[in-house]
Write a structure and sequence with these properties.
Glucosylceramidase; 10-stranded antiparallel beta sheet; globular; GH116_catalytic; Non-lysos_glucosylceramidase; 40 strands; single chain; 19 helices; Beta-galactosidase, Chain A, domain 5; 889 residues; Glycosyltransferase; Immunoglobulin-like; alpha+beta; 6hp_glycosidase-like_sf; 10-stranded mixed beta sheet
């Protein structure tokens, strides 16, 4: 039992007996599809303590019927969607530029508890939450193994039906699948992924999936093991015509690999128009082994003869005939020996376009001519691509924080490897809100998504400059909230974008980005300030917001977000040397904070003050307890800013959210508050968007607006935002409980763990879950200032977690005991320049700093429990080097 858990158990009685009674969500009693209980209810103290346990990798098992809905994105980021299924087969294959809404466009019937009436739920309304998709296989793909032991031959496809047990370890970006049969003399493991390396968006954006196998002979006699992979040719899947085109498989390869390129060609000039179709392109199946055998035409179904087929000659079939490529590798394993071998599946469908959007073509087409060129690049750089990807996976999960928390806070970045997000040939990042739903890289949704700016900061930096301060910037400083797909700004998106600009500046190494864009940043901030019509620091201009309505009055969550944005602008103005504008921003912030705390705080939480003329004749949150009411302070913590709202009032607001909005079982609440979309169902825990503590008859001002349904929903992106804020404010138990509620709603027994749904699948806002990791670490970073800070929110005595900076990433460890603190930054990749480090500890008597064996002269200051260490000269760490700070109080 870890130290943090022991301390927790010692104090749990006080927590449970206090005014903040912890509610245990129904996640421990998750319902499986047949209506039974997945897990028995655990004692409350044991369940709460388990939140802190390091635990183990979340592993889903065939024997518990947990594999059928798993769909982990395993293609490169911004390359379409290829899902890894729970049994290791690939499915969905949304790589053909169809631009459909939802991973499976459909409508399903759903009965609301209170009405008992079925209504149609579309993909954008949560169809896959009610009825998870599975087995979408527009093309046939698979792997099989043949084992020869003496005179006995055993053939096994790698699918759920063929193995007594399959275990899926849900560690994005690399999943591990273990195939188990006690009767076999081999152990078989698959690692599936596409190269994923933080800070390297190009090498993480390869249209390829790697299937890396490890086979070990655990028996006493030699074993001959043959792996056979196959892939159906479905190039031009939607537009090829039998009378005009034909399928062709050709042998291909390069140094260290062999494969088959699957394409479509025109029979004559009449079919040439196909080259412009969105699904025109090719696929490549390959073994990264020069001894492999290939079959340009593999005959199926699978038999023993399938493993001896070999054909290098091109195979040509009609469009309506099935044409399947095969690749085989064979190894002889002596007892106790093992082998590792990789298969690769690449694709190349470059004709991406969207109506009325400035951009077309796929970015990967700049670097590759076809899918075989993709595979060739992967083989040529295999050691680096796979080594750095595995290094990242090991670095991320080598932490003291609970496994489940590390999984949930990171796995949503897999949204980048779905058709929610794209990258045009020009390099422009472009995204929907969710798969195929709501265009334009919407500012009021994407500003919640903290993960991308921390893991691939160049993508966000380019989007700020190219789109928000470029295409979307209006003469008055307003930012069109859907780029060229919109004609107006959204106030929350505007404020969130200024905050993102500050984050993007911090995730660089100098001030070039800030200085180059400062005039536009200033205009965007001035636009925010002008929306305060009465000059009290509280935004009050009716404008669009993320709840799809124009609200009047002074609204706590919008006013607070604007205050935080202007505070960020004040800091940037100071760095840019614009002292006059910095003073203007500070004046706005001081007035806004003072008036928000005096006018919009009701003694328990922050509210929406109606417009003095319109009153409550229009939609708003008014006296309700709204999930985002202190979102501005939450954002401030994400970029290392100090308080923009009073701590006690903010804590009171968060406690009110816990008291009124968090439900251990949302069922009873939904039974009396119908109309929302099904993002949490009876038997599941979650935080409701808005509640009505004063029991007002019309709490939202109107009774028939379609947007009212939002207020009765649990949308995970908002829940993650609150969890990250609670973590930063010391409400650790509540933060973990809320995050675990979301995590368990997406348990594989019920739906796809990798698909957090809001307005369609793989919703961008869910990437705010990374913010909870940020605040759990107390992480702050300012690259141009060469500054880094860690202030862990839990497990402070023995803490370990990864970090990512502008040019490098690694592991931070903190050990505190008996007045001694040791703090280490071990850089694993890239480089990191530092001048100032900040940690939490009692005032030290001595501070010593080392980089490797070198002693580094430094001074320190102590304020509010934080020790700031400043080096005499900046130090640059490179991969493999460690900075160590030792303090003795």
């Amino acid at each position: 039992m870890g130290l943090a858990r022991r301390k927790f158990l010692q104090n749990i009685g006080l927590a449970m007996a206090g005014t903040m009674l912890i509610k245990i969500p129904a996640l421990g009693r998750a319902v499986v599809p047949d209506g039974g209980l997945l897990l028995a209810k655990q004692p409350d103290t044991a369940w709460l303590a388990s939140l802190y346990d390091r635990g183990q990798t979340t592993t889903y098992l065939k024997s518990r019927n947990e594999l059928q809905y798993i769909g982990m994105p395993v293609g490169g980021i911004l390359c379409g969607t290829v899902y890894l299924g729970g049994d290791g087969r690939l499915w969905l294959w949304d790589i053909f530029n169809r631009n459909q809404e939802g991973i499976e466009p459909k409508e399903v019937d759903w009965k609301e508890a209170v009405l008992g009436q079925a209504k149609k739920v579309r993909s954008r309304d949560g169809a896959c939450y009610i009825q998870p998709s599975k087995d979408i296989r527009p093309l046939d793909q698979g792997i099989a193994i043949k084992l020869t032991i003496g005179k006995e031959t055993i053939i096994r496809p790698l699918d759920e039906a063929s193995w007594p047990e399959i275990a899926f370890e849900a560690t994005y970006p690399i999943a591990t699948i273990r195939y188990t049969d006690p009767a076999l003399p081999v152990e078989l493991t698959l690692e599936a992924f596409s190269p994923f390396i933080p800070l390297q968006e190009d090498d993480s954006g390869l249209p390829v999936t790697l299937l890396s196998f490890h086979i070990r002979n655990k028996g006493k006699v030699p074993v001959e093991a043959t792996l056979l992979g196959w892939l159906e040719n479905k190039a031009a899947i939607y537009h090829a015509e039998d009378k005009l085109h034909e399928r062709i498989n050709t042998a291909t390869g390069g140094k260290g690999w062999k494969g088959v390129l699957s394409a479509v060609r025109a029979k004559d000039a009449a079919g040439a128009a196909l080259l412009q179709s969105p699904d025109y392109g090719n696929l490549c199946l390959a073994a990264l082994d020069p001894t492999a055998n290939i079959a340009t035409q593999l005959e199926l179904p699978l038999t023993a003869a399938s493993f001896s087929q070999s054909r290098d000659k091109a195979a040509v079939h009609g469009i309506n005939e099935k044409l399947t490529a095969g690749v085989m590798v064979k190894y002889r394993l002596l007892p106790g020996k093992d082998i590792r071998t990789d298969f690769a599946i690449g694709w190349y469908f470059p004709n991406l376009s969207f109506k009325d959007i400035q951009g077309k073509g796929r970015y990967y087409a700049n670097h590759f001519s076809d899918a075989a060129a993709v595979v060739n690049y992967v083989r040529e750089h295999h050691a680096r691509l796979t080594g750095d990807s595995r290094l990242w996976k090991n670095t991320w999960y080598d932490a003291s924080l609970p496994w489940w928390l590390m999984e949930r806070t990171f796995m949503n970045i897999s949204t980048l490897a779905t058709t929610t997000a794209h990258r045009f040939q020009s390099g422009r990042f472009y995204a929907w809100e969710g798969v195929g739903s709501c265009e334009g890289t919407c500012t009021h949704v994407w500003q919640y998504a903290q993960a991308v700016g921390r893991i691939f900061p160049a993508l966000e930096r380019d989007t700020r400059q190219r789109v928000d301060l470029g295409i979307g910037m209006q003469p008055d400083g307003g930012i069109l909230f859907r780029g060229e797909a919109e004609k107006r700004p959204a106030i929350d998106g505007q404020a969130g974008t200024v905050l993102r600009i500050y984050r993007e500046h911090q995730m660089t190494t100098d001030d070039r980005f800030l200085r180059q864009n400062w005039p536009q940043i200033k205009k965007a901030t001035q636009f925010i300030i002008r929306q305060d019509r009465n000059g009290d620091g509280l935004e009050d201009t009716p404008m669009e917001n993320t709840l799809d309505a124009i609200w009047d009055g002074e609204i706590a969550w919008i006013a607070g977000l604007c205050i935080a944005a202007v505070q960020a602008a004040a800091l940037m103005a100071t760095e840019a040397g614009d002292t006059a504008f910095a003073a203007t921003c500070k004046d706005y912030v001081e007035k806004g904070r003072r008036n928000m705390e005096s006018q919009l705080y009701n003694g328990e939480y922050f509210i929406h003050q109606p417009d003095k003329v319109k009153g409550r004749s229009v939609i708003g949150s008014y006296n309700t307890c709204h999930i985002d009411q202190v979102y501005g302070q939450s954002w401030a913590f994400q970029v290392g800013m100090d308080r923009v709202l009073d701590k006690e009032k903010t804590l009171s607001a968060l406690r009110a959210l816990w008291k009124y909005n968090f439900m251990e079982d949302v069922g009873p609440y939904l039974a009396t508050h119908p109309g929302g979309r099904p993002y949490a169902l009876p038997g599941e825990g979650g935080m409701i968007m808005n509640t009505n503590p004063y029991k007002e008859e019309y709490p939202f001002g109107v009774k028939d607006a379609w947007q009212l349904g939002y207020f009765n929903e649990c949308m995970s992106g908002f829940e993650h935002q609150v969890a990250s804020h609670m973590m930063a404010e010391g409400m650790t138990i509540e933060a973990l409980t809320l995050t675990k509620a979301v995590h368990d709603r997406y348990h594989a027994a019920k739906r796809n763990p990798f698909n957090e749904i809001e307005c369609s699948d793989h919703y961008a806002r869910a990437m705010t879950s990374y913010g909870t990791f940020i605040t759990a670490c107390g992480f702050a970073y300012h690259g141009p200032h060469q500054y880094i800070r860690f202030a862990p929110a839990l497990q402070k005595e023995q803490f370990k977690a990864p970090f990512v900076t502008a040019e490098g990433w690694g592991t931070f460890t903190q050990q505190q005991q008996h007045g001694r603190g040791e703090y280490r930054l071990a850089l694993k990749y890239g480089r990191l320049s530092l001048l100032t480090c900040c940690f939490e500890q009692a005032r030290p008597a001595t501070v010593a700093v080392k980089a490797g064996a070198r002693q580094l002269p430094a001074t320190f200051t102590h304020e509010n429990g934080r020790v700031t260490v400043t080096l005499q000269q900046p130090v640059t760490l490179h991969a493999g080097e460690t900075l160590q700070v030792t303090m003795i109080s």
